[in-house]
Known about the structure:
Elements: H1 2-7, H2 34-48, H3 55-62, H4 66-70, H5 76-88, H6 103-120, H7 124-128, H8 136-150, H9 156-187, H10 191-204, H11 209-222, H12 227-252
Helix pairs in contact: 2-5, 5-8, 6-8, 6-9, 8-9, 9-10, 9-12
Amino acid sequence: MAKAARERPPRTSVWLEGKAHRRRGGGQPSGLDRDRITQATVRLLDAEGLAKFSMRRLATELNVTAMSVYWYVDTKDDLLELALDAVMGEMVLPDPDASDADWRDQVRALAGEFRALLVRHPWVSALVGTYLNIGPNNLAYSRVVQRVMRRTGLPAKRLTSAISAVFQFVYGYGTLEGHLSARAAATGMTMDEYFQEALSTVTEAPQAADVMRESRAIMEARGGETVDEMLERDFDFALELLIAGIEAMVARR
């Protein structure tokens, strides 16, 4: 038994194993279908987070047995992968072939959509790094990103570096912002209330006093009366730095 378990091939992806489009229809007494199960999964992940999610919890939410859910999906991983691609479809993508479009505006649009997705669904950031992400919605996003970045004027050998610089920045920023929002919500505070309490706590820590004194002037200069405004200003300027960097590297050629 142990040897058989060791020899079992590793899981690849629901999109490669021929399971993504199986058992989509109804026909079961529960009246379930794949789309309804996926939508319920997204709602649960948004409300309770990835750590608390289980097939049993999902079945309870749907008011069915766990076996009813397994009739439509084979594993929890399959379902999470389907949910991940489903929310990727929420992003509004620019037309990369529009002749009158500026690549800079399209990069801003793509970055903004991805950031908003990560904040709206904080569980997405963990799954993006877990699965192959080759569902139709993710591939559509990736294709648009590549086509827009080709229009920057960078040589082909530099495109992956530029994509990484921009969209890994967005991934990191959106992930941290999503976690901040989730922590605030878990305490029942607004983002501003949570930020002020966290700032007060850090300020009172002796080991952080020097750093906080040095940081105060920078934070005051940043401006913005709310956390949302501060986050927006930081994100926008950081993205402009990256766009300016791409322009500079193209000009250097």
